[in-house]
Amino acid sequence: MMCASHFRWMSSARSEAGRVRDINEDACLDEPARGRWAVADGMGGHAVGDVASRLVIEGLRQLPDAANRMTGNLAQARVQLLSANQQLRDEAARRQVQRIGSTVVVLLACDRFCGYLWAGDSRIYLCRNGQLRQLTRDHSHVEALRASGQLTDEEARHHPAHHIITRAIGATDQLVLDEDTIEVADGDVFLLCSDGLSNELTDAEILAALVATSPFDCRRITDELVDMALARGGRDNITAIVVLAEDPLAADKTLLNPTS
Predict the structure, then answer these.
(1) In total, how many domains does the chain have?
(2) 122: Cα separation from own chain's centroid
């Protein structure tokens, strides 16, 4: 049974190779009608990262329609990602390379809730009431240093080891995924992105793009974010998905109780 969503979902995705790399090792999933979105970033410098990210995304695309319980949806996604991990480990062994890997971040909508799970440094941000919040925490060497107080936020942003991640699909035999859920509010905007975007833009710049005047246009905002990252140098592959949640009941209340 497909999960009945209380919200109307609109979204837009864009993925670019950037200005330095020849191959786009990012891949993404943008399915607002099914309430699922994902970004995967093939591990730079490793063999066939584009193959890894596509395998992860195609596996998520083949998930059955969501059940009416968020826990079940997250469990299905987790099983699929564990399967992708094993496939990438097997492929690395077949090619006789150390690893073929990809980050992943997945957002799933069901009723009044979103669930999300991730491995690596691709991110989900939430923009609510003009405030930006990073929902995921990077699985990276630099984030571990920042979290322990050894680096400031500014030092972490410019640290030369910011590309070293500590978890990824295909990196090890045993995949560890983090997950969480959040109750959705009318007007919530989610941003899923690879580090090619978050490494180029500050939180303030991301927030400024997501706080748009009415009517909200997912495509325009996605383009604005990616274009800004390209203008900064586009030193990595860049992927962004902008997702808007609208509560029909809140809209109906506005129509029934117009302001004077």
Answers:
(1) 1
(2) 6
Over residues 162-176, the pLDDT tens digits come to: 678 999 999 999 999
Please state which of the ranges 114-118, 168-172, 246-250 shows the lowest mean pLDDT.
246-250
Q: Which of 31, 16, 102, 104 is nearest to 61 (CA)?
A: 31
Q: Residue 57's domain is classified under what CATH number?
A: 3.60.40.10
In a domain, residue 3? The reply is: no
Hey, which residues does 39 pair with through a beta bridge?
28, 105
Whether the Cβ atoms of residue 180 and residue 116 lie closer than 8 Å to each other: yes
Instruction: Note the pLDDT tens digit of each residue in 15-29.
Output: 999 999 999 999 999
Query: Which residue's structure tokens are 């009517």?
Result: 215
Place of tokens 């109307």: 8
d(CA 232, CA 123): 19
Q: Is the pTM of this model over 0.85?
A: yes
* Integer Cα distance of 1 and 107 in angstroms: 19
> Residue 159's domain spans which residues?
8-254
Q: Is 100 helix (H, G, I), strand (E, B) or coil?
A: coil
